[in-house]
Amino acid sequence: MRERNMINEKIVKEFKIFRNKLIEEIYLQQYMEWLALTTSSSSDILSDIIVASTERVKKLECSQKFRNILDEIVNNPMNFDNDIYCEAKIINKRIKDNTKIYSRQLCNALLNVKRNYILAKQKNDFQIVKPFLQTFIKIKLKEEGISNYESILSKKIVEISSQQVTELFKSIKYNIPLLIATEEKVKYTNCSKEDMDKILDYLIDLVNLNERSLEIYKGDESFMVSFGTNDVKISLNYKEKNMFEFVTKSCHELGHALYEQGNNKNHNRTFLSGAASTTMHEAIAIFYEKFIGKNNLLQAFISNELLDKPECFYFTPAPTPIRINASEKNYPIHILIRYEIEKGLLDGELKVNEIEKIWKEKYKEYLGIDIKNSNEGILQDPHWFNDKFAYFPSYIVGRAYAAQLKNEIDKFMAIDEMIKINDLSSLNNWLKENIYQYGAQYGPSELLKKSTKEELNCNYYLDSLHLER
Ligand SMILES: [Zn+2]
User: Fold this and answer.
1) Is 234 helix (H, G, I), strand (E, B) or coil?
2) Predicted TM-score (pTM) above 0.90
């Protein structure tokens, strides 16, 4: 028995050495990406460092010794501490999902797509990248043995079955007339940099973010990177002209930051930190964007009292061709179009040659929009040109999570009342207790069930859009 314990201790010690090296490399890469987007550091040098680090990661993950250690832990959960067991499971999954070793041919094909996508965007012409995308998909399907869309979808979004996805999009398609029926009220109030500073100070205070461990970059893109509970960085779009857009998009990033800051401190620098899944992370950000940032009381307070600027608005009858600018009601239609096209492509029913035409036809048919050029159409999202197929549905699943969480939270508190007294601590405590603190310890389905006492139920989302089902 004592001997067994000593062997296990040795395994854990070795596990931690590998794990720490991996985490260091991941942080290094994240930090380089942060520098690339927030400073004028030479992008050549940064990308050299990233590439070298990626190679070291691959080497670590391919190490037979490391894999044996992981197997030993995963196959003998009783012999190890639960945290170590969970971490080993997470790393194992990561290795399975990520270390598909691209062949040189596939690697080159993808690089060509990425490069020519940038070029195509500059020239506003899909034709430039089209042949490269065609070649890439052909090699990808063959090398990865993909026969249909479903096989990719089930790997990408673990939280929902392909059948649920099919049903969800069927509902969305059936409800298109309802989703485009109403005129959208768009609020618009001009805001200056000083206004944005004021709003940001107010929001950080409102959502109880710890300022001491938060770095904010005022740039022209919105995103978050995290190095554990005491070092979270967000970039916010300070080029934004519309105060209301600034409020909602900032709330989105603050939501991501809250998730990270709310993790269990003991999980810092381990694979247990972070989120149950990227979709769950997105769900929390969407929650803050939709239910805090878009809250009418909050917007009225910021506009009338904080900035002393009257709320202006106009009505727009026309949907936008751009996904990220779409209204909450139109949004699922944008995703439906992408879903139908990528499904067609990977099921072998659509050719790359046809997709720009089909894109235009679907925008006309579903949203009544004439797409004027490639940038406004098929080139607007980078996903397909970065090998991110079957990723779009996760945006809808994230919304479904957010709606289900909202339904549960409404049982315990009233967000409007909390906004009236400028105090969201009950909401933050609930989310911390039920979601954030677990980091990546539980998978998304398990965590959702634990926190809402129910499996994923997309009806909350469909109901929030007042759709028929
Ligand atoms: Zn996000």
Assistant:
1) strand
2) no
